[in-house]
């Protein structure tokens, strides 16, 4: 009886192991396909996000920006930086978040500008 029970447990573990391995392979293949579909722009943007530790959406929320224009970024950055200055009772932590958000959005603007240059030369 114990022998049959052990065989059932071993066979069940093998079945679950194979199913798990197949699921991992499918997930990896789907991830690779999604990465190819996003193209190089997403790779540059993802790299910038990992370097700065902040996504574009998060940076836009911090600076309260809906469109990526250098003027709006600079205007909101200057205001938030001054308001959160420690000498006027602000928070150094929030001030540093404002600086990182500005850096991240400027990096995104650089990525977009670099992508537009090759497209203009092709046309």
UniProtKB/TrEMBL annotation:
<dbReference type="InterPro" id="IPR036869">
    <property type="entry name" value="J_dom_sf"/>
</dbReference>
<dbReference type="InterPro" id="IPR005341">
    <property type="entry name" value="Tim16"/>
</dbReference>
<keyword id="KW-0496">Mitochondrion</keyword>
<comment type="similarity">
    <text>Belongs to the TIM16/PAM16 family.</text>
</comment>
<protein>
    <submittedName>
        <fullName>Mitochondrial import inner membrane translocase subunit 16</fullName>
    </submittedName>
</protein>
<keyword id="KW-0813">Transport</keyword>
<dbReference type="Pfam" id="PF03656">
    <property type="entry name" value="Pam16"/>
</dbReference>
<dbReference type="GO" id="GO:0030150">
    <property type="term" value="P:protein import into mitochondrial matrix"/>
</dbReference>
<keyword id="KW-0653">Protein transport</keyword>
<dbReference type="GO" id="GO:0001405">
    <property type="term" value="C:PAM complex, Tim23 associated import motor"/>
</dbReference>
<keyword id="KW-0472">Membrane</keyword>
<keyword id="KW-0999">Mitochondrion inner membrane</keyword>
<keyword id="KW-0811">Translocation</keyword>
